[in-house]
Amino acid sequence: MNTKLKVSKVSKIYPGCIANDNVSLNFESGKIYALLGENGAGKSTLVKILSGVINPDEGQIFLNNKLLKLTSPKDAKNNNIGMVFQHFNLFETLTVFENLSIDSEKNNNQLRILVNNILKKYNFKIDLDVPILNLSAGQKQKVEIVRCLIRNPKVLIMDEPTSVLTEQETEDLFLSLKKFSKEGILIIYITHKLKEVLSLCDEVAVMRKGKVVSISRTIDEKLSSLANKMIGEKLEKIKKVTSNNLNREEILKVSRLNFNSDDPYEVNLMDINFTLNKGECLGIAGISGNGQNELFQILSGETLSNNGSIKFRSKEISKLNPKERREYLMAFSPEDRISQAAVPSLKIYENVALNNFKTSNFFERGLFNERKIKDHSKKILSNFSINTDNVNLKSQFLSGGNLQKLILGRELITSPELLICFNPTWGLDVGAINYIHQTLIKINEQGKSIILISTDNDELLQLSDRISVINRGKLSKIMSAEEVNPEKLGLLMGGGLVD
Amino acid sequence: MIKIERRDETSNIIYFLTPVLAIFLTLITGAIIFYLLGFKPLEALKFFFITPISDLYGLSELLVKATPLCLIAIGLSFCFKSNNWNIGAEGQLTFGGIVGGGVALLFYNHQGFYVLPLIILAGAIGGMVFAMIPAILKIYFNTNEILVSLMLVYVSKLLLDYLVVGPWSNPEGFNFPETRQFSDSARLPILFEGLRIHTGIFIALISVFLAWVVLFKTYLGFQIKVSGLSLKTAKYAGFKGKTMILLVFMVSGACAGLAGVGEITGPIGQLHRMISPEYGFTAIIVAFLGRLNPIGIVFASLIVALTYLGAETAQIFLQVPKYTGQVFQGMILFFLLASDFLLFFRIKFLGFKKYEY
């Protein structure tokens, strides 16, 4: 039977951000649809609405012309909508079969026969009686897919399914998806990987900032045209004056940096090489979850990397922790300002004391020098125009912008040689963003260096002297900011190659 | 629909008043329980909480019981504040007792000022080493310290059992499961003639003062505080996480070991099976009732010590089992956690909202 899914004028508004803005889409079985977009484009919100996890503020969803009421994930299941999320929802210590039987009404014998038939039909090789933790990521995903198939889904939604898969597993998955599609299951494939859209899908809807900006057939599209649509062509460069490149003094050298994580949800870094000069800003672009987190943690020293991989002013620092690196005048501003860069329930001056090193004398002979820390904090509050002068205020009462200013202020007041920051303006209002951008430009002009890891392309093009793109744990070649355009950036971010 | 939300700000005064509220609620519930058992509630409560401390002997007993509780809870507060869940203080106390007791037995026919300090030191080191086991396993093998420290309690208790029945049992003791009496030089001096209160209380008071200084005035204390609030931040600030785990366990174990050695060289004077009426577990309640604050812990240890005494008087005068004491301890913890929940969260009744399409 033909399945038609219609999303009609769906909007979802969060405070300060429109996640879905009047989204209308039509899907029909027999085709594989791609939903393409950057982080924060609104893909996940739409998927959550379709699976009943969140309720839209406006708009309707129709399945075969029948209005759907999706108030919980159960409703989606009962209406034969199946979901496979990016992160698996499986009990690691239970066996495959136990996991499948948890939310099934069938008795165990019936279920076992059914599951075996499904496994045979699609040539899935999974032992039903081994615990989930013994399976590879690809096999776990197959278990999730089988769980959906048990319920004879009409619609199958895959949310960035390949982020944890190997190349081979990805190919396998695509073959299965094509099979499902032939059998009449409507498939919606959410991704930010351009190549996958072209090799797997029939139609593609591109989302940007909550809106659907384009719907087209994939045979009419190329990597570059999709990249342009995804990133948007309105990128302009209000760039700062390029730093005087006469000064070729090398500050940081990263060579043959490799990182293999035990955690399957972390990204492995492969053969990262770059150098950073004095007074320069190196931008690292990429879609989030491609290794930025891991790279930041390695550069800051929270995670240690292989010997000899990081040199600061020709000194080997790859085995130093963040505190020891601060002694070399490095400073760090992590992405997560609320639970990492600062502790909300601590007072401002206590948060300032987190950036402690020998010359600051915050702790003389191990004792907490409250007066010194408070004086230092007052200086930060006034120098970085934070809208309070009360150092005893708990940091949770600062707005996001003021908290970020406090963090940057804390890191910069010591005049570091190198600042490494990760999404410094994430979630801030325009005023705060401007202030922070100006601050970053100013410290570049003072001859200090910056590594700016960011998922905001406008920001990168505004501030960077050179830009590289990180994709699946690999850095692209480093380009000077002048030769970068949205198309190139989009291609590299989506895993394509440029010349 | 009922919605539970986190409150923005809780005032410091209320934060330290909720333990008082918890105690009050415990008293009310206790009264109801006594009433249901057929006693006059007020009279029963009086037997439980007033009679035991209405004379000098009672007050001394209160301090005798509060001393180990306070000492252990002080140590535990280092662990709990930094997100390390050491619940094996009872085992560390027992092992400290074993090591200290071993030294005491070694010197059973020696006299001299050096004997007691040696025993106390040995006890502290014993508890410390025993607490390092869960810490090291956590650091290098990522084991769960709750399970390891708890299971080690039974290891040390069985070891003590074996020693007092077997190799260390008193050769003139008619096979009773106990060791020789320690020599006088191995005993903590009594403060007042005729009362059991001993100089161990000074060890507890000194540890309270030191803990206060370390937790609130030093870099180490700052690191413990930050790690307890956010491990991610501690890592970002470059605190040496592994060293700190080991350190807080060592402090905690040493305190428990001191408590153990204080018991055997104080009121007990020998090793036998029951050197602690589960002080190590009860001290967990004391630590939380005192808000992990050294001063708070002093008061909390007195209150919880009173439940031990009350249970004994109640057993005599009301013929109820002495385990009523544990019922009261359990109620205190229950009400404390419940009022904490309301302190940090608020419950909102939203009524039924229809979804409209």
Query: What is the rounded Rg of chain B?
Result: 22 Å
Helix content of chain A: 25-40%
CATH topology of the largest domain in chain A: Rossmann fold
Mean pLDDT score of chain B:
91
- What is the overall pLDDT average of chain A? 86
Give the count of structural domains of chain B: 1
* Assigned CATH class of the largest domain in chain A: Alpha Beta
The appropriate CATH architecture of chain B is Orthogonal Bundle
- Radius of gyration of chain A, in Å, reads 25 Å
* Biggest contact: A-B, 36 and 23 residues
Q: Judging by the overall fold, what is the CATH architecture of the largest domain in chain A?
A: 3-Layer(aba) Sandwich
Q: Report how far apart the termini of chain B are.
A: 19 Å
Approximate strand percentage of chain B: under 5%
Kindly report the oligomeric state of this protein: heterodimer
Q: Main β-sheet of chain A, in a few words?
A: 7 strands, mixed
- Helix and strand pattern of chain B: EHHHHHHHHHHHHHE
Q: How many β strands of chain B by DSSP?
A: 2
| Coarse structural class of chain A | alpha/beta
SS content category of chain B = mainly alpha
Notes on the protein architecture:
The complex is a heterodimer of chains A (499) and B (357). Chain A has 17 helices and 23 strands. Chain A is α/β, with parallel strands linked by helices. Chain A has two domains: 228 residues, P-loop containing nucleotide triphosphate hydrolases (Rossmann fold, 3-Layer(aba) Sandwich), CATH 3.40.50; 244 residues, P-loop containing nucleotide triphosphate hydrolases (Rossmann fold, 3-Layer(aba) Sandwich), CATH 3.40.50.300. In chain A, strands 13, 16, 19, 20, 21, 22 and 23 form a seven-stranded mixed sheet that branches. A six-stranded mixed sheet of chain A has the order 6-7-8-3-9-10, sandwiched between helices. Chain A has a four-stranded antiparallel sheet with strand order 2-1-4-5, covered by helices on one side. In chain A, a hairpin with a 2-residue loop joins β1 and β2. With 357 residues, chain B is mostly helical. Chain B has one domain: ABC transporter involved in vitamin B12 uptake, BtuC, CATH 1.10.3470. Chain B has 13 helices and two strands; from the N terminus they run βαααααααααααααβ. Chain B has a two-stranded antiparallel sheet with strand order 1-2. In chain B, α1 packs antiparallel against α13, α4 runs antiparallel to α5 and α12 runs antiparallel to α13. The longest helix of chain B is centred in the C-terminal third of the chain and has 28 residues. Chains A and B meet through α10, α11 and β18 of A and α8 and α9 of B.
